[in-house]
Specification:
The chain contains nine helices and 15 strands. By secondary structure, the protein is of the alpha/beta class. The strands form two sheets. It has an eleven-stranded mixed sheet with strand order 1-8-2-3-7-4-6-5-9-10-11, with helices on both faces. A four-stranded parallel sheet has the order 12-15-13-14. Strand 9 and strand 10 form a beta hairpin. The termini are far apart. The structure holds threonylcarbamoyladenylate and magnesium ion. The site of threonylcarbamoyladenylate (TXA) has 29 residues, from strand 5, strand 6 and strand 10.
Amino acid sequence: MARLTMREATTRVLPAAEAAIAEAASVLRAGGLVAFPTETVYGLGGDATQAKAVAAIFAAKERPQFNPLIVHVASLAAAEGEAEFDDRARRLARRFWPGPLTLVLPRRADGSVDLLAAAGLPTLAIRVPNHPVAAALLAAFARPVAAPSANPSGRVSPTTADHVVDGLRGRVDLVLDGGACPVGVESTILDLTQAQPVLLRPGGVPLASLVAQIGPIRAADARDGIKAPGMLARHYAPDAPIRLAAGSVGPREALLAFGPSPLTGARRMLNLSVRGDVVEAAANLYAMLRALDGPDIAAIAVMAVPGDGLGAAINDRLRRAATRD
Ligand code: TXA
Ligand code: MG
């Protein structure tokens, strides 16, 4: 099925059964775009070896071209065909793949990924996702899939097929509906291209788990430049302003609560986790930000969320969502 132009494409949504996955693989082979569930968020996938498909991803998201994409593969063996693994990388891959960890590694000269996928960088961000639909699609396609989160650039990432359609209707050929994403925040991105590992984005694998495997990891700073758009100040943003660490809430505000004692008095309220569990909160974060957003509120007030484990990724995304520029 050849895509004509982005605007003429119609978006089909199919339950992610076997036949739909086979069809998704053929859409990818033809250079089309397929949104699919991963354990973190839905990805907007294209054939990472076809420049045309990669360019279509940037266009569909209206993503600045300088922001490189994550490449998804079925296995560590497939990843080793695209990037140079050292002992640290192999150790982390064996421990956390399939799973929500993206490794930034030197690109292999004989790899198959198109240069545009990494925006011309000599490195590659790569991961093996831990979701049965993503795994089946990667196995059926048998080539690397470039897939950023399936949302317009800068907006809240999608954790359901409905979220994908809301943001990208007409800009993606096929959406595989595999239900809600279990982790709910994006993968942790670790840069292993320098002597000391650098955390480029906190995410689904807690920093402490990585440190336990390979020792000290430094936080990204100005030296690292804007390598990851997740590092851009404003990102993951709903329309309404976000007010962090709220200790009270006004009647024209919506409340994103956390824990057993939510503030009272908001126009509407959703609770990330009544029992105060950051894993549950991560899974709810993006869907609740979307559900609370709207033109009728002055702001979304957010109660403090602890910073341990997945809390680091939650706080990172909330801070960026709160940044107005
Ligand atoms: O959980 C996830 O990682 C999701 C799912 C779909 O897998 N994908 C995702 O992709 O969040 P995206 O494109 O929204 O974020 C990719 C991040 C960006 O911050 C990008 O700059 C960074 O990965 N990145 C990609 N290639 C890179 C590279 N060569 N060097 C440094 N950062 C890179
Ligand atoms: Mg994203």
